[in-house]
Design goal:
Helix content is 35%, strand content 22%. With 616 residues, it is α/β, with parallel strands linked by helices. The strands form 5 sheets. An 8-stranded antiparallel β-sheet has the order 3-2-4-1-10-9-11-15, covered by helices on one side. A 7-stranded antiparallel β-sheet has the order 5-6-7-8-12-13-14, with helices on one face. Strand 12 and strand 13 form a beta hairpin. The chain is globular, with a radius of gyration of 25 Å. The mean pLDDT is 93. Bound molecules: 5-amino-5-deoxy-1-O-phosphono-D-mannitol. 5-amino-5-deoxy-1-O-phosphono-D-mannitol binds next to helix 9 and helix 17.
């Protein structure tokens, strides 16, 4: 949540910072701000409620010169979204300015102490405490900027990624992190540095990145090498990584929204996800994680999957895949519940974190707990170099490219694709998968991208269909077996971007309560592809029909039964049961998208949400 970008170098900082904020806006978008040190050493701070474009309006015709600056786009935690609460915050003397991601848990105590020493606060945020505290220790202990940052952070409880600029040190930016990501990009020679909360805003300028670790502080100074040290005052070797982001993935590529682009990306990115892992010529799946940790993974007593939101839905499919192909019991946990309920974790458990962003605070905390208990930690992550990716024993990237739309789409299918390959590779290693089925799934996986493409061709039809349902206040999504998690995912997609209340249920559970809701006003989406329990789901459909429920059915091409029962249906190509979610979720993504567009809503940046949930 929230996005940070900072620059120090020879170029004008403002265009770099504003461009960076636009790239980061998906993380938080309720207010934004920028601080620039002008050529005359004047600190200019501009802020606005709302989107980055509002900030640009505010800054228009103001002095935006300067080759050093910091900027922020906010997702409010403490204090309402407003210009007053937007970052950067400025210290009492006006010398220091700071941007922050995370939450300072002991901010009330610190603020009271600082107030009693004559500090005044302009905002309701926890962040303002940080900038005042740094100034206080700097003045009272006679420290330079980085020493003051270190001393102040030692007094802080909570999570932070910060960048600080001191008007009196115009050649220096200081950044630090704990439990919130921070990356430094090295530009030309040692003459310019970029700092950001993730690589996306700086990837167009450099591929040379340094990821800070918890409790590390970095000094970016013109003309000098990076200096990294930690809260224990130890110097830390600078580890430069070559990170190349596909920049075409960072723009809309002609689509009206990132979400639609990312839905349409799926055939290509699933090819990327399988490339070099699914080897058609050998009819095999080879995952380096399984090869490198064969013993540990094949001997696992149990898998525990920890994740949130869409990634949790992928985890439910992962459970079925691993139990089916590997005969290992799997539990799927909400990371937020798991981390606080004293779970029993054994050293021979494999704890698997699934996360698109790799920064979700609860998932990160859950794997830390797992590591402490001695479990082996496996990551299924999209964002390369993210905190979760770096805190696992091994893992498999899903490689679907940056996902910008808040509603997760291609990450879900990428996660399911990786979980399928993992279950097959592990099942083969354990000797628990039937060889005929193993080869059949490998064969069929190769056709999935093309089959998704065929579903996408129905986009116009689904758009027309969506118009019928924008009136609805409630939706019910029902599926069974492999398609039950798809029902949950379809409901989540609709509610988060269209603000229509939607519930996903296992279809048979309908009789145990939700059936009471059904009337002619209630659209019911059945995921009724031609697989296990097809006949049973047809019976569930009859039950809805006889109560005048309005059905939208996702069915397999050529289904002769359902089209005679319902007026609205979308066909998906035939596939194997275990791969059904990869296809049946696509029309639900498109349906949610078009309903939200019909309602005139901001699909990519729905209200109250953020792409990366880095606070618990
Ligand atoms: O980055 P992660 O996969 O860890 O994020 C988990 C959830 O926050 C995320 O899936 C969220 O539910 C999405 N907005 C769903 O579309």
């Amino acid at each position: 949540m929230c996005g940070i970008v900072g620059y120090i170098g020879k170029r004008q900082a403002y265009p770099i910072l504003i461009g960076g904020l636009h790239r980061l806006e998906y993380r938080g978008y309720d207010s934004a701000g920028v601080a620039l040190l002008s050529e005359t050493d004047k600190l200019n701070v501009y802020k606005a409620k709302g989107k980055v474009s509002e900030l640009e309006n505010v800054a228009q015709e103001k002095d935006c010169t300067g080759t050093i600056g910091i900027a922020h786009t906010r997702w409010a935690t403490h204090g309402e979204p407003s210009a007053r609460n937007a970052h950067p915050h400025v210290s009492e003397s006006g010398n220091l300015t700071l941007v922050h991601n995370g939450i300072i848990e002991n901010y009330v105590v610190l603020r009271d102490q600082l107030k009693s020493r004559g500090y005044h606060f302009q905002s309701d945020t926890d962040t303002e405490v940080l900038v005042q505290l740094i100034e206080y220790v700097q003045q009272s202990l006679g420290l330079n900027l980085e020493q003051a940052v270190q001393a102040a952070l030692k007094r802080v409880i909570g999570a932070y990624a910060i960048v600080v600029l001191d008007r009196r040190f115009p050649n220096r930016l200081v950044a630090a992190r704990k439990s919130s990501p921070m990356v430094v990009g090295i530009g030309e020679d040692q003459s310019e540095y970029f700092v950001a909360s993730d690589a996306s805003p700086i990837a167009e300028y450099t591929t040379q990145m340094v990821y800070l670790k918890d409790e590390e502080i970095v000094v970016c100074e013109r003309g000098r090498d990076l200096h990294v040290f930690n809260l224990s005052n130890e110097d830390v070797p600078v580890e430069v990584k070559n990170v190349e982001l596909d920049l075409t993935m960072l723009d809309k590529g002609g689509f009206p929204h990132f979400m639609l682009k990312e839905i349409f990306d799926q055939p290509a990115v699933l090819e990327d996800c399988m490339r070099g892992r699914l080897l058609p010529e050998h009819r095999r799946i080879v995952l380096s994680a399984v090869t490198d940790h064969r013993e540990r993974l094949t001997q696992a007593r149990r898998f525990i999957i920890v994740s949130c939101g869409t990634s949790w839905h992928a985890g439910l499919i992962g459970k079925q895949l691993i139990e089916h192909f590997c005969k290992i019991p799997v539990e799927v946990e909400y990371a937020s519940e798991f981390r606080y309920r004293e779970p029993v974790i054994m050293p021979d458990d494999v704890v698997m974190a699934i996360s698109q962003s790799g920064e979700t605070a609860d998932t990160l905390a859950a794997i830390e707990l797992a590591r402490e208990a001695g479990a082996f930690v496996f990551g299924v992550v999209n964002a390369v170099g993210s905190s979760i990716a770096r805190n696992t024993d091994t893992g498999t990237y899903i490689h679907v490219g940056p996902e910008i739309g808040v509603a997760s789409t291609k990450a879900f299918t990428g996660q399911v694709c990786v979980l399928t390959m993992l279950a097959l590779a592990l099942g083969e290693a354990r000797g628990t998968v039937d060889p005929g089925e193993y080869h059949a799934v490998i064969e069929e996986l190769q056709h999935i991208p093309e089959k998704i493409g065929r579903i996408l061709e129905q986009n116009d039809r689904i758009e027309v269909l969506s118009k019928i349902f924008t009136y609805a206040h409630n939706f019910l999504y029902l599926g069974r077996g492999w398609n039950y998690p798809v029902a949950l995912e379809g409901a989540l997609k609709l509610k988060e971007i269209s603000y229509i209340h939607a519930e996903g249920y296992p279809a048979a559970e309908m009789k145990h309560g939700p059936i009471a809701l059904i009337d002619q006003e209630m659209p019911v989406v059945f995921i009724a592809t031609h697989h296990q329990q097809y006949e049973k789901i047809i019976s569930n459909m009859q039950e809805v029909r006889s109560r005048n429920g309005r059905i939208i059915a996702i069915i397999t091409e050529g289904d002769q039964v359902v089209p005679g029962m319902v007026s609205e249906y979308i066909e998906v190509p035939e596939t194997l049961a275990c791969l059904a979610p990869l296809l049946s979720v696509i029309p639900l993504q498109l349906l949610a998208y078009h309903v939200a567009v019909q309602k005139g809503l901001n699909v990519d940046q729905p209200r109250n949400l953020a792409k990366s949930v880095t606070v618990e």
